[in-house]
């Protein structure tokens, strides 16, 4: 029983890493209707910015805060100068552009800061606590709680604020939103800015656990995309729950399913995607899209 609880707790901690990135992907999709494959690279770049401010003598929380603000401006600039040229065209073209942006950002990080592992300090203590017989690091617990707070704030943003409703309207139908008087271009910039700022927070939470490298979030991005598909592209809660589910199930499968083991546990989220898409194509918490004909 103790092993089971430990696997579940570790899975929730790992899933929180995926969830932090998945929330940023959901935010971009809700604001622009696109899936941003460059989200992981932008989060890593933000973590490197925070690391640079730390080297200049900034306190940790201030360094992260400054990186969040700069990331917001960077995300807005990327949307205005690059993504906007492709938003009105074929969605597949815009997706390819984000993949190219991921490669570019990763290369820039390697060029400026090298590909060596860098130690990024954690905003949480490095001690551990006992939870139902399982050993949990305070750092993992802090990431878990921070993910919950961000999830709730995003859900409130999209469902309870005028800005969130405006972002969703622009993503669903930018033409109708423009006729309604909404500043479509400005809202798209704000959406990308918020996603980049959220990525900065995610990068700062993940970097102490994985060590800071240009490819730090490459594997996490795969799991985050799986969580977004499983949970629903329009549901922050769904993305987080799916990320936790992936983290827990792959841990349990690695130990309790002999033919999977640790080598094949990466197949678990893809098996979940297959099952969920067959049973519920819009995801666990996603909305059905009804098109008038």
Gap between N and C termini: 55 Å
Gyration radius (Cα, Å) is 19 Å
Domain unit count: 1
Gross morphology is globular
- Write out the strand line-up for the largest beta sheet, numbering strands in chain order: 1-2
Low-confidence stretches: none
Largest sheet, in brief, is: 2 strands, antiparallel
CATH-defined architecture: Orthogonal Bundle
What is the residue-averaged pLDDT? Answer: 84
Structural class of the helices, strands and pairings? mainly alpha
Helices, by number, come to 11
Number of strand segments:
2
Helix content: over 70%
**What is the CATH class?**
Mainly Alpha
At the third CATH level, what is the topology name? ABC transporter involved in vitamin B12 uptake, BtuC
Order of SSEs, N→C? Answer: HHHHEEHHHHHHH
**What percentage of the residues does DSSP assign to strands (E)?**
under 5%
Pfam families: BPD_transp_2 (PF02653)
Keywords: Amino-acid transport, Cell membrane, Membrane, Transmembrane, Transmembrane helix, Transport
Family: Belongs to the binding-protein-dependent transport system permease family. LivHM subfamily.
Protein name: Branched-chain amino acid ABC transporter permease
């Amino acid at each position: 029983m103790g092993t089971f609880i430990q696997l579940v707790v570790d899975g929730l901690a790992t899933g929180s890493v995926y969830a932090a990135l998945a929330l940023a992907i959901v935010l971009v999709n809700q604001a622009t209707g696109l899936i941003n494959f460059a989200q992981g690279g932008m989060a890593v770049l933000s973590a490197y910015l925070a690391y640079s401010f730390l080297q200049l003598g900034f306190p940790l929380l201030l360094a992260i805060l400054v990186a969040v603000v700069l990331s917001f401006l960077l995300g807005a600039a990327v949307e205005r100068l690059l993504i906007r040229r492709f938003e009105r065209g074929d969605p597949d073209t815009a997706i390819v552009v984000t993949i190219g942006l991921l490669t570019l950002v990763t290369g820039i990080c390697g060029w400026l800061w090298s590909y060596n592992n860098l130690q990024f300090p954690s905003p949480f203590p490095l001690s551990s606590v006992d939870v139902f017989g399982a050993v949990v690091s305070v750092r993992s617990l802090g990431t878990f709680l921070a993910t919950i707070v961000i999830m709730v704030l995003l859900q409130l943003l999209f469902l309870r604020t005028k800005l969130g409703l405006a972002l969703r309207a622009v993503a669903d139908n930018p033409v109708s939103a423009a006729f309604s008087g909404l500043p479509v271009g400005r809202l798209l910039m704000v959406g990308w800015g918020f996603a980049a700022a959220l990525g900065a927070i995610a990068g700062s939470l993940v970097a102490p656990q994985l060590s800071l490298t240009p490819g730090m979030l490459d594997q996490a991005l795969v799991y985050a995309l799986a969580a977004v598909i499983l949970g629903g592209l329009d549901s922050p809660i769904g993305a987080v729950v799916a990320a936790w589910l992936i983290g827990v199930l792959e841990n349990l499968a690695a130990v309790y399913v002999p033919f999977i083991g640790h080598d094949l546990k990466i197949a678990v989220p893809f098996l979940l995607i297959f099952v969920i898409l067959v049973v519920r194509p819009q995801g666990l918490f996603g909305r059905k899209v009804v098109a008038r004909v």
